[in-house]
């Protein structure tokens, strides 16, 4: 018997960048995300008689992180036999496009269904959070909020129940290479920045403002707040007292400059960047083709995809 689940990536509009409890993956801030339809992970779990195994994109790969997470699920759900986890990522891995979010959300859903357990998405979000914090938000479609909480119970994600709107994300893929600084390591370093406390306070205010913008379907306000939040987050990396670093490349900066030029032309376009060099441009469905054309004009070799609001976890 086997069970398959599909979960989509999400892009944080208000970022999660720091852990107050690394074991429980409790974040230092609450966050808000948009789930993307075009990027997703499909995961099938099948019992086996030997040991946990991970097959990713048709290749048998290191199981350390997956095995650790499955053992957490065994502690939470009761012991279960070893599993073969067969996963297909329709998103570059470890390049700042939230592949771990969709992967651990799909794995959590597949395992619980394989065990015959029907859990609410809120309950699943607490479990998925232990594998990857952002995975808590990938249980939901459209806009989701992850409450930072103070313990395992109070740190969970839920849908914002936002109205439909013609929002789009133009994804400019600078690199699909595995990033040199992992998200967890990047967060650890960023928390040593002398500006980290100020960023936390700013983020709390932006969290409130973003919810209001989403419910008002104000895409320009959504984009403006998201860009400020993201660029401030990346500034922490540059000012870290322990091993300052950046995910930006020269091409990342060039894309940011192009986005500013697009805005000066009167078009709606705002950038957000997660832990990696790739840039996501928040815009509308009607403006997205103009953004793509402007990027290709200056960077003709750039790989670009346009993503739309995506659905929550599904099961086959």
Automatic annotation (TrEMBL):
It is an enzyme of class 4 (lyase). Keywords: ATP-binding, Lipid biosynthesis, Lipid metabolism, Lyase, Nucleotide-binding. Its EC number is 4.1.1.33. It holds the Pfam family MVD-like_N. SUPFAM superfamilies: GHMP Kinase, C-terminal domain, Ribosomal protein S5 domain 2-like. Coiled coil: none annotated. One of its GO terms (cellular component) is cytosol. Residues 7-157 form the Diphosphomevalonate decarboxylase-like N-terminal domain. GO terms for molecular function: ATP binding; diphosphomevalonate decarboxylase activity. One of its GO terms (biological process) is isopentenyl diphosphate biosynthetic process, mevalonate pathway. Residues 170-302 form the Mvd1 C-terminal domain. InterPro entries: GHMP_kinase_C_sf (IPR036554), Mev_decarb (IPR005935), Mev_diP_decarb (IPR029765), MVD-like_N (IPR053859), Mvd1_C (IPR041431), Ribosomal_Su5_D2-typ_SF (IPR020568), Ribsml_uS5_D2-typ_fold_subgr (IPR014721). PANTHER family: DIPHOSPHOMEVALONATE DECARBOXYLASE. Belongs to the diphosphomevalonate decarboxylase family. This is diphosphomevalonate decarboxylase. It comes from Leuconostoc gelidum subsp. gelidum.
């Amino acid at each position: 018997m086997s069970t398959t689940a599909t979960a989509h990536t999400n892009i944080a509009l208000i970022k999660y960048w720091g852990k107050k409890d690394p074991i429980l993956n409790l974040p230092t801030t609450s966050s808000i995300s948009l789930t993307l339809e075009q990027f997703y992970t499909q995961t099938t779990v099948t019992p086996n008689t030997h040991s946990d195994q991970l097959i990713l994109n048709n290749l048998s790969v290191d199981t350390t992180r997956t095995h650790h997470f499955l053992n957490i699920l065994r502690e939470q759900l009761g012991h279960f036999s070893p599993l073969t986890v067969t996963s297909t990522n329709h998103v570059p891995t470890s390049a700042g496009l939230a592949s771990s979010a969709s992967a651990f959300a799909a794995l959590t859903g597949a395992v619980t269904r394989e065990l015959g357990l029907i859990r609410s998405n809120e309950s699943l979000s607490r479990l998925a959070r232990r594998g990857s914090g952002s995975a808590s938000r990938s249980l939901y479609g459209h806009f989701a909020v992850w409450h930072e909480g103070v313990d395992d119970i109070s740190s969970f994600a839920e849908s914002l129940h936002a109205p439909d709107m013609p929002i789009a994300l133009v994804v400019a893929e600078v690199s699909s290479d595995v990033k040199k600084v992992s998200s967890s390591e990047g967060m650890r370093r960023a928390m040593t920045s002398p500006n980290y406390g100020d960023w936390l306070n700013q983020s709390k205010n932006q969290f409130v403002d973003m919810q209001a913008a989403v419910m008002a379907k104000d895409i320009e306000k959504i984009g403006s707040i998201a860009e400020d939040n993201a660029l401030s987050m990346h500034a922490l990396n540059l000012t870290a007292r322990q091993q300052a670093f950046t995910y930006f490349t020269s091409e990342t900066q060039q894309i940011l400059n192009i986005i500013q030029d697009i805005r000066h032309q009167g078009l709606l376009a705002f950038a957000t960047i997660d832990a990696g060099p790739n840039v996501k441009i928040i815009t509308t469905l009607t403006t997205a083709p103009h953004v793509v054309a402007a990027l290709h004009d200056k960077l003709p070799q750039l790989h670009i995809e346009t993503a739309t609001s995506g659905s929550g976890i599904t099961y086959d």
